[in-house]
Write a structure and sequence with these properties.
single chain; 7 strands; alpha/beta; 5 helices; disordered C terminus
Length: 199
């Protein structure tokens, strides 16, 4: 039905936004995100702190986090995983200019903002959020190195409602190679059924 077809662009119903078990990013959570829960007890506090200060990858997915804050200790991080949390705003990434990969999918984000300074960012996943066409300002994204952008599952990426979606993204991000899993050098709206790409 038409309703179920459009429902992929709505906030997912099974996620309970009023979950009371939410937590903030703190040193304890960062240790788990850098070393993994099983490895913390066997290491000295100095070793753990050293690992935090040098961390290139931080995994904080599915931790019931409600806001991006408290990441100052891991300012050398290059890959940050924050998917499947309760984050509503993109913020507090001012000291993370080394980020090349940022996953914020499956959250409650409503607006693209506070990302333009991430000049090394190559992969950004904002899929399965609640970003409307009005709040999808792609000029707020770093355009120089960004190669992969995932926006599917947001109202703004519904091509039936926003037929100019891909062209708007391409205009703001001319160096983008992939959008929502599809190559940017192929116009998917002109592909005919049964046509194949040689690449």
């Amino acid at each position: 039905s038409r309703q179920s077809e459009g429902s992929m662009y709505l906030l997912r119903a099974p996620r309970d936004e009023s979950n009371s078990k939410r937590q903030r990013i703190n040193a304890k959570l960062l240790k788990v995100g850098v070393l993994g829960a099983a490895n913390i007890s066997s290491k000295s506090e100095d070793t753990v702190m050293d690992a935090l200060l040098k961390a290139k990858v931080v995994r904080l997915d599915n931790k019931s986090i409600q806001e991006i804050d408290g990441l100052e200790l891991v300012d050398k991080v290059e890959r940050l995983y924050l998917q499947s949390n309760y984050i509503k705003k993109i913020e507090n990434l001012d000291f993370h200019s080394k980020l090349t990969w940022l996953n914020l999918s499956d959250n409650f984000i409503t607006e693209i903002k506070n990302l333009k300074h991430l000049s090394n960012l190559r992969v950004l996943d904002l899929s399965l959020n609640n970003i409307s066409t009005e709040n999808a300002d792609f000029s707020n994204l770093p355009s120089k190195k960004l190669a992969v952008l995932n926006m599917y599952g947001n109202p703004c990426s519904d091509i039936a409602a926003n037929p100019n979606y891909r062209s708007k993204v391409k205009e703001k991000l001319p160096n983008l190679l992939s959008l929502d899993g599809g190559r940017m050098d192929i116009d998917v709206t002109t592909l005919t059924e049964g046509g194949e790409d040689d690449g």
